[in-house]
Amino acid sequence: MRRVIGMDIHRTFAEVVLWKDGKLHPAGRVSMTRSGLEGFGRSLGKQDEVVIEATGNAMAVVRVLSPYVARVIVANPLQVKAIAHAHVKTDKIDAGVLASLRAADFLPEVWLPDPDTERLRRLVARRNQIVRHRTRIPARSPDPTLPACRPVRATGRHLASATGHARRRVCRNRTAPARAQSAERGHG
After folding, report:
1. Neighbours of 132 (CB within 10 A)
2. Max CA separation in the chain (angstroms)
3. What angle do CA 37, 40, 42 make, to 5 degrees?
4. For residue range 111-168, what is the model confidence (pLDDT) as tens digits?
């Protein structure tokens, strides 16, 4: 007997609807923690198909549920929206639409990478994250040799400038420009 499970996933929970024998059956909510998804996966059969929309945490759900079911399908959310436009939108209706579209073989799927490609994607994403973080560090300090610099709001006569307000950096009781000039002269 064929069962299709539609899941409308969110950050902390997923609404689940089962399609079985041409009828939709609400199955409640599942926690989006690893243990919650594994517990839900154990309740499924090896012949079941799970359908989710492509969101930020869709690949994590695919990785956790794949060992428990025949197939986890990721649907293209823009095409699903175009196919099944509903006047009333709830999580149960969205999950039911996903399950019904898959049962009718009318679900627009998203290509899923093989494990090696997915691992490389995660590696590249992590590298990009590290590079972005590394580039942010010099932006916080005008001179990498002056780690003790901190921005302060100018007061008194330094308040007026072309932009309406001025900021300066103070480093160990000396302003950053004075310290840079001192370093250029070889005194620092």
Report:
1. 9
2. 84
3. 110
4. 888 889 989 988 999 999 999 888 877 666 555 555 555 555 555 555 444 444 444 5
> Cα–chain-centroid distance for residue 97?
24
In the chain, where does the domain assigned CATH 3.30.420.40 lie? 3-103
- Confidence (pTM): 0.62
Any idea of the CA torsion for 26, 29, 34, 39, to the nearest 10 degrees?
Answer: -60
Looking at residue 162, its pLDDT comes to: 45
Domain 3-103 CATH assignment equals 3.30.420.40: yes
Tokens coding 75: 């649907």
CB atoms within 10 A of CB 146: 17
What are the C-alpha distances in Å from 149 to residues 14, 166, 169? Answer: 47, 16, 6
The torsion defined by the Cα of 57, 63, 69 and 73, in degrees rounded to 10, comes to 50
44-95 tens-digit pLDDT: 999 999 999 888 889 899 999 999 999 999 998 887 876 677 666 777 888 8
Rounded distance, CA 142 to CA 176, Å?
8
Spatial distance between the Cα atoms of 6 and 83, rounded to a whole number of angstroms? 16
